[in-house]
Specification:
Blueprint: H1 8-14, E1 41-45, E2 55-56, H2 64-67, E3 76-77, E4 82-84, E5 93-98, E6 109-114, E7 129-135, E8 140-141, E9 147-154, E10 165-185, E11 194-205, E12 208-214, E13 227-233, E14 240-246, E15 250-258, E16 264-270, E17 280-284, E18 293-303, E19 314-323
Antiparallel strand pairs: 1-19, 2-3, 4-7, 5-6, 6-19, 7-18, 8-18, 9-15, 9-19, 10-11, 10-12, 10-18, 12-13, 13-14, 15-16, 16-17
């Protein structure tokens, strides 16, 4: 049998083949050309290594989702790479810390986020709320196969907020066309009234990952050991899909890619190594909206918003957004 020389072009092409060997969780559709996160040209990133890295908080934070209040000026990172989300506001604590052991080779600093008052400033709502930490990314067409990776440090279980609930979100901001029923005026004197017609509008949506903590004393915890459940948002109906059970703390790598057909592809594994095909978890068209544009990535820090309880402390490193230039998969490289 003749030998096949594994050139760079061939290796890049092989990354795009159908991932038959990858585990897929209830995937309704699988694309023939999905991109492994971490592929292509790096377009947005932050390594948090600068000694003068800082964030201007500009209190009080926004809380449009809760009370329609966007409190300008919004907070922003001094390097211009991160901003406050006007919908929910920013985490209460934003700083860089020494990179925990086992992180990316050469990394000395990483991002630390933690929150207590995740709802309306000064008015505890006594329900789970969340803050947003948003990357100031450059929007791009889905035709460029946008994808991202980020390393996340999961602390020891005794450092997690000890409640059964979502603690962290890792998400992308997308948009795509969606059909809606709207009432319109007939606009006639003799036939005043309204009618319903179908219109197509560009709809923002936010697929990604959530980590839900299951404490030791939870009735559903069979062996009495705490763990986290990975939830993937979302299937074609908008429902969350149960992903792997997480029993290992420390560093994890999360990532997503979006293919030109509008599908989202979810990847994760323990450790900080780059992704391979075997790390593929799920593919879907969330909410049955085929994405046309990729806007950014962001993190949700969740708490019960009771004025007392602090969230789990979260550490992130080297979030990276990539694109693949043009339609030729042979040109895609890490």
């Amino acid at each position: 049998m003749p030998r096949i020389k594994l050139t760079r072009e061939l290796a890049a092409t092989l990354k795009y083949v159908l991932l038959l060997a990858a585990p897929v969780i209830m995937s309704p559709t699988v694309t023939l050309a999905q991109v492994i996160p971490g592929t292509g040209t790096l377009v947005n990133t932050d390594d948090f290594e600068a000694e003068d890295w800082g964030f201007n908080l500009n209190w009080p934070k926004s809380s449009k989702e809760e009370d329609e209040q966007m409190r300008y000026p919004l907070g922003y990172a001094t390097n211009g790479k991160w901003g406050e989300g006007p919908k929910r506001g920013i985490p209460d604590t934003i700083k860089t810390v020494e990179t925990p052991a086992g992180g990316l080779p050469g990394s000395k600093r990483a991002l630390y986020l933690r929150s207590r008052d995740t709802g309306i400033p000064g008015r505890p709502g006594f329900k789970q709320c969340q803050d947003d930490f948003v990357l100031t990314a450059k929007p791009m067409s889905i035709g460029y196969n946008p994808n991202y990776t980020v390393r996340v440090f999961l602390p020891d279980w005794d450092q997690w907020e000890q409640r059964n609930g979502v603690s962290l979100g890792i998400r992308a901001g997308l948009q795509g066309p969606q059909q809606k029923e709207k009432e319109v005026s007939l606009g006639r004197r003799l036939f005043r009234g309204r009618r319903t017609e179908t219109v197509t509008e560009m709809e923002p949506f936010y697929p990604g990952f959530f980590l839900q903590f299951i404490p030791q004393n939870d009735p559903r915890n069979q062996d009495g050991k705490p763990y986290a459940m990975m939830l993937i948002r979302a299937d074609h109906n908008g429902h969350e899909v149960q992903g792997p059970k997480i029993t290992q703390t420390g560093w994890w790598t999360f990532g997503m890619s979006v293919s030109p057909d509008g599908q989202c592809h979810y990847y994760a594994h323990p450790g900080v190594e780059e992704f391979t095909a075997k790390d593929h978890l799920y593919s879907s068209i969330p909410y049955t909206i085929r994405a046309t544009h990729f806007n950014t990535i962001f993190f949700n820090i969740c708490s019960p918003d009771n004025g007392q309880t602090w969230s789990t402390p979260w550490i992130f490193d080297d979030p990276k957004v990539y694109y693949v230039n043009g339609a030729s998969v042979q040109q895609a490289q890490r």
